[in-house]
Write a structure and sequence with these properties.
The protein is about 75% helix and about 0% strand. By secondary structure, the protein is an all-alpha fold. Helix 3 runs antiparallel to helix 4 (about 90-115), helix 12 runs antiparallel to helix 15 (about 375-395) and helix 16 (about 400-415) crosses helix 17. The termini are far apart.
Length: about 525
C-alpha cells in the first residue's frame, strides 16, 4: 500500500503548499483517517501489554523502565511507518503518539504522584532521562539510515525547498513524549523534598543523642583506630569514608547533604538552587538551636563545646555550598566554582575530616576573613571562631584584666583631684605591689588551665593539628596583647623588681605554645 499511496500523498502535500485553502482540508482528512485506523489496530495490543505490567501493584521503577521502554519502541515504529506515507503533519503525529502513551501514563501518573520515597522518585527520573537519551541516539542512527536509502532510490520524492522538514519530522523527538511523565516525577520529587526540608531540617527537634558532642567524634575515631581500612580502590575508599564521616554529622546537616546530592541531577538548576538555599538556611537555624541547647548544659566546657559544634558543622556546610554553582547568585569577586568531585585544595568533597585539616593552609587571616561564599557561611564561621577565641582570652586574662580596669578607673578619677602620696595608686590596697605580684601569679595559673582546657576541646572537634594551630595563633596573640597592658602598667607604676616577675612578650608566647602542645599518648 505504501508503494501505491506515497506518490499520491507526496503530490498532495506539495500542492497544499501552493493551495492551502483548497487542498488543506483534504490532507487533514488523510491524517485523521490514518491515525484513526492505526489507533484502532494498536489499542488492544497496548492495553494488553500495559495490563501485563501490573501497573497498580508492580514496582514503580521497573514499571517505568519496562512500560516507557515499550512505548519508546512503539513510538519509533509508528514514527517510521508514518514517514513512509507523509512528510508533513508533525503536530498531528505527536498528538497521536501522546494518545498512545496515555494508555500507560493514566496508570503510571497516579503511582508517581503518590510515591513517598525520594530515592524511588530519583530512580524514576534516571530511567526516564536514560530512555530520552537512548531514544535520541537511536533516532539519529535511523535518520542516517533513511538518508542512505533515499540516495539509493527511494520512492518518496525529494521535499521541495519551500517544504523544509522540521526537526520533529526528521527524527522522532522521544523527549517530547516522555517529558510529561518526567515532569510529574520531578514535580513530586520537589514537593517531597520541600516537605522533608520542613519536617526534618527546619522543625528538627534535637534529642539527647543528637547533642552527644564531642563523644560522637571520639567514638568514631576510636572505631577507625580499631578497624583500619581494607585495601580497595580510591573511589570506594572515598565513598566509605564519606558514609562513615556522615555518621558524626548533626541530623539536619546530614539530611541537607543527602537532599542536595539526590536532587542535583533531576531538577532545573534554578529550582535546585532555591531548595538548596532554603535547606541550608534552615539547617543553620537548626544548628543555632542545637548550639544553644549544648551551651545550656551544666559543665565547664559547655560553652566551648557549643561553639566548636557550630564551627565543625559550618565547615561541612561550607563544603556543600562550594559544590553548587550558584552562577550569577555569587557575589562579584568570589572564587570560581570547584569542578565536580574536587574540594578545597584538591581534597575530595564530602570528606569533612580532610577538609577541616586543609583549613590550616589558609593561615589565621584567611581562616577568619576568607572570601565570601554564597549564603554568607564564611561570615558566620568567622563570627563563631572569633567568639570562641574571645571567650578563651577573657577567661585566661581575667585576673590581669580586672586589675588593669580597677587601676585605670582609679587613675581616671584621681586625675580630676589633687595629687598626694596618700592618693597614689600603689598606696591603694587593691593595687599594692604585693597584690600586683599575686595578680600576676593568678594569671599564670588561670591562663594555663584555661588554655589547656580550651586546646583539648578544640582538638576533640577538629582533630587535625594544622587546623588547631590556625585557631591557636590568634588566641596566643590576643592573650599577649591583653597581658601587655598589664605589663605596661607595671613598667610605668612599679619598680623593676616586680617587672622582672612579669612575662615578656616572647616568653609568654613560648609559654603559651608549650601549654598548647598536645599531650603525648
Amino acid at each position: 500500500m505504501a508503494t501505491q499511496m506515497t506518490p499520491l500523498i507526496s503530490e498532495l502535500e506539495r500542492r497544499v503548499v501552493a493551495y492551502p485553502t483548497d487542498l488543506g482540508s483534504l490532507l487533514e482528512e488523510c491524517h485523521t483517517t490514518y491515525f484513526a485506523i492505526r489507533k484502532s489496530l494498536l489499542t488492544p495490543q497496548i492495553i494488553s501489554e500495559v495490563k501485563g505490567l501490573d501497573p497498580a501493584h508492580g514496582d514503580l521503577v521497573e514499571l517505568t523502565r519496562a512500560g516507557c521502554g515499550y512505548l519508546r519502541q512503539l513510538c519509533e515504529n509508528e514514527f517510521t511507518l508514518y514517514r513512509r506515507f507523509f512528510s508533513s503533519g508533525e503536530d498531528h503525529l505527536y498528538r497521536y503518539l501522546e494518545n498512545l502513551c496515555d494508555f500507560l501514563y493514566d496508570d503510571l501518573r497516579p503511582r508517581i504522584l503518590h510515591e513517598q520515597r525520594i530515592g524511588i522518585l530519583c530512580e524514576v527520573c534516571t530511567v526516564l532521562q536514560a530512555l530520552m537519551v537512548l531514544g535520541s541516539d537511536v533516532s539519529n542512527l535511523d535518520g542516517v539510515s533513511d538518508e542512505g536509502e533515499d540516495d539509493q532510490g527511494s520512492i518518496v520524492p525529494e521535499t521541495p525547498l519551500d517544504m523544509k522538514e522540521s526537526p520533529g519530522m526528521q527524527k522522532l523527538q522521544i523527549g517530547v513524549l516522555l517529558q510529561m511523565i518526567l515532569q510529574d516525577a520531578q514535580t513530586r520529587l520537589v514537593f517531597k523534598t520541600q516537605a522533608i526540608v520542613q519536617s526534618d531540617i527546619r522543625l528538627h527537634t534535637p534529642t539527647d543523642d543528637d547533642l552527644r558532642y564531642p563523644d560522637k567524634l571520639i567514638e568514631y575515631r576510636a572505631t577507625q583506630v580499631q578497624e583500619p581500612p581494607k585495601g580497595s580502590s580510591d573511589s570506594s575508599d572515598n565513598q566509605e569514608e564519606m558514609q562513615a564521616d556522615e555518621s558524626t554529622w548533626y541530623p539536619s546537616v546530614r539530611k541537607t547533604a543527602w537532599i542536595m546530592s539526590m536532587l542535583d541531577e533531576f531538577v532545573k538548576p534554578e529550582i535546585f538552587h532555591d531548595i538548596a538555599r532554603e535547606a541550608i538556611s534552615f539547617c543553620r537555624e537548626s544548628l543555632d538551636v542545637a548550639s544553644q541547647r549544648m551551651a545550656a548544659k551544666e559543665g565547664p566546657t559547655s560553652a566551648i563545646d557549643a561553639k566548636l559544634f557550630t564551627i565543625y558543622h559550618l565547615l561541612i556546610l561550607k563544603e556543600l555550598v562550594s559544590e553548587v554553582d550558584f552562577g550569577q547568585d555569587q557575589p562579584a569577586g568570589t572564587a570560581p566554582p570547584l569542578s565536580a568531585g574536587e574540594g578545597f585544595f584538591g581534597i575530595p568533597l564530602f570528606r569533612p575530616a580532610a577538609f577541616l585539616g586543609s583549613l590550616a593552609y589558609l593561615g589565621v587571616p584567611r581562616l577568619l576573613s576568607g572570601a565570601e561564599t554564597p549564603l554568607n557561611i564564611d561570615q558566620e564561621l568567622k563570627s563563631v571562631c572569633e567568639a570562641l577565641i574571645s571567650d578563651c582570652v577573657k577567661n585566661a586574662t581575667r585576673p590581669v584584666r580586672v586589675f588593669v580596669e580597677r587601676s585605670s578607673a582609679y587613675l581616671d578619677a584621681l586625675a580630676t583631684g589633687p595629687l598626694n602620696e596618700k592618693n597614689d595608686l600603689l598606696s591603694q590596697e587593691f593595687a599594692a605591689p604585693k597584690q600586683a605580684l599575686e595578680t600576676n601569679n593568678e594569671f599564670k595559673q588561670a591562663c594555663k588551665e584555661e588554655v589547656q582546657r580550651w586546646g583539648s576541646r578544640v582538638r576533640l572537634f577538629l582533630e587535625d593539628e594544622r587546623t588547631v594551630a590556625a585557631l591557636f595563633t590568634p588566641l596566643q596573640h590576643q592573650i599577649v596583647e591583653e597581658y601587655a597592658i598589664f605589663r605596661g602598667l607595671l613598667a610605668g607604676r612599679y619598680g623593676p623588681e616586680l617587672l622582672e616577675e612579669a612575662y615578656t612578650e616572647t616568653a609568654l608566647l613560648n609559654t603559651l605554645r608549650q601549654w598548647l602542645v598536645p599531650p603525648t599518648s
